[in-house]
Amino acid sequence: MSNLIHVLDVVALLEDLPERNLRRGQVGTVVEELAPGVFEVEFSDNEGRTYALLALRAEQLLVLHHQPAQVA
């Protein structure tokens, strides 16, 4: 799954992380690939202020798409 996630992808969290005050469905941006299948994700508010920055595994993330898939 890690080959489907790239730096600058917009992702949604697939699980609650109460210790970080993050809930399933919160949206962040991948800012770095730390290791195969491990990504640093930044969560920001509507004004662009970062409220969380943490390493997450690919299976904890869903890549969001803002355009329709290309059909061959």
How does this model look, in words?
This protein is mostly beta strands and 72 residues long. It has one domain: SH3 type barrels (Roll), CATH 2.30.30.30. The chain has no helices and five strands. Strands 4-3-2-1-5 form a five-stranded antiparallel β-sheet, with no helix packed on it. The chain is globular and about 45 Å long. The relative contact order is 0.29. The mean pLDDT is 93.
CATH classification class: Mainly Beta
Number of strands: 5
Kindly identify the CATH topology. SH3 type barrels
How much of the sequence lies in strands comes to: 35-45%
Write the layout of secondary structure elements.
Blueprint (H helix, E strand, L loop, with lengths): L9 E4 L13 E9 L2 E7 L5 E8 L3 E3 L9
Antiparallel strand pairs: 1-2, 1-5, 2-3, 3-4
Protein traits:
72 residues, mainly beta, 5 strands, 5-stranded antiparallel beta sheet, SH3 type barrels
Kindly summarize this structure in a few lines:
With 72 residues, this protein is mostly beta strands. It has no helices and five strands.
